[in-house]
UniProtKB/TrEMBL annotation:
Membrane topology note: Multi-pass membrane protein
One Pfam short name: CTP_transf_1
Gene Ontology molecular function: any one: phosphatidate cytidylyltransferase activity
EC number: 2.7.7.41
Catalytic activity: a 1,2-diacyl-sn-glycero-3-phosphate + CTP + H(+) = a CDP-1,2-diacyl-sn-glycerol + diphosphate
PANTHER family: PHOSPHATIDATE CYTIDYLYLTRANSFERASE
Organism: Pantoea eucrina
Name of this chain's protein: Phosphatidate cytidylyltransferase
Alphabetic keyword roster: Cell membrane, Lipid biosynthesis, Lipid metabolism, Membrane, Nucleotidyltransferase, Phospholipid biosynthesis, Phospholipid metabolism, Transferase, Transmembrane, Transmembrane helix
Top-level EC class as recorded in UniProt: transferase
Membrane spanning stretches: 28-44, 56-76, 88-107, 119-138, 150-171, 192-210, 216-234
Length: 285
């Protein structure tokens, strides 16, 4: 299992970085929509959709919604203060606050949504749509001036998440004794959690020194810390929904890694939260 995970990671990470820097904005948007459609397909299972046909329709509706949002955006926007993006990013901030309470009080909190498919679908919308908007808002920023400015910001967030995941895994394996959220994800520990934060902090510091990020250090640190914490919450939230659905992985599209949601669960929280803080709260960039 570990060998297949490493091989897949060594293949996927360069592809992701290449997509960030080499795809034109339209190609990047289409690729992101495709990823979100696959995520919606897998979310259908978490929402209780048993048939393939229902999940196909959910994925198609997701793609149509995101495409419609994309076509209503002006080309190469210089800010995130477009109604579609701004409302989605604020909604993401609200949703992840709600998700925090759902995770903290699980399994008692599941009584509020366990029997409601519409509510579980709404949770999926609040997870996938703001993720798409955060990706687009960051990638297109100052695109007409510097095609790579937004790519650096997205790479920064992704490195934070990858660092937190890798650090949590290593520190958890070496020192993990105290369970972080045993009722949601028994394998995660507090030692792994703090190890992940440390790894992300080191990556953020190094990246800020080497990459062209023109933001005040205090703002960058605040956004990075909150985004890293959000990434952990995104992982725990998907684990909670999978536990309720009685499944181990959201899918099997990626060898050794499970499904698309299993790979982007942390990013679905980190990207929109980071974008909201950076673009809307601190009004930077």
């Amino acid at each position: 299992m570990l060998k297949s995970r490493l091989i897949t990671a060594f293949i996927l990470i360069p592809l992701v970085i290449a997509a960030l820097f080499w795809l034109p904005l339209s190609g990047f948007a289409i690729t992101t929509i495709a990823i979100c459609m696959l995520a919606a397909w897998e979310w259908g299972q978490l929402a209780g959709m048993a048939t393939r046909q229902q999940r196909v329709w959910l994925a198609l509706l997701c793609g149509l919604l995101l495409a419609a949002m994309l076509f209503t955006l002006p080309s190469y926007s210089h800010d995130a203060h477009q109604p579609q993006l701004e409302s989605s990013l604020w909604a993401a901030l609200g949703w992840w606050v709600v998700a925090l309470f759902l995770v903290l009080f699980y399994p008692a909190s599941a009584a509020l949504w366990r029997g409601s498919r519409p509510l579980r679908l709404l949770f999926g919308v609040l997870t996938i749509v703001p993720f798409f908007c955060g990706m687009i808002a960051l990638r297109q920023y100052h695109y007409d001036i510097d095609h790579f400015a937004g790519a650096w910001w997205l790479l920064f967030v992704m490195l934070l998440v990858w660092g937190a995941d890798s650090g949590a895994y290593m520190f958890g394996r070496l020192f993990g004794k105290h369970k972080l959220a045993p009722k949601v994800s028994p394998g995660k520990t507090w030692e792994g959690f703090f190890g992940g934060l440390l790894s992300s902090a080191i990556i953020a510091w190094l990246f800020a020194l080497l990459a062209p990020l023109t933001v005040a250090p205090g703002t960058l640190i605040a956004c990075a810390v909150v985004a890293t914490l959000a990434s952990v919450l995104g992982d725990l939230t998907e684990s909670m929904f999978k536990r309720e659905a009685g499944i181990k992985d959201s899918g099997n599209l990626i060898p050794g890694h499970g499904g698309i949601l299993d790979r982007i669960d942390s990013l679905t929280a980190a990207v929109p939260v980071f974008a909201c803080l950076l673009l809307l709260v601190f009004h930077t960039l």
